[in-house]
Write a structure and sequence with these properties.
It contains one helix and no strands. It has one helix at 2-27.
Length: 31
């Protein structure tokens, strides 16, 4: 149970980081 929750949290952080990186790339701040 704890492992599944940790996996879900990790997936959430990865998704958020991916979205933030895509947003910054659109703004021309990165890439």
């Amino acid at each position: 149970m704890a492992f599944e929750r940790q996996l879900l949290v990790s997936y959430t952080y990865i998704s958020f980081f991916h979205y933030a990186l895509h947003f910054l790339c659109q703004q021309g701040l990165l890439c």
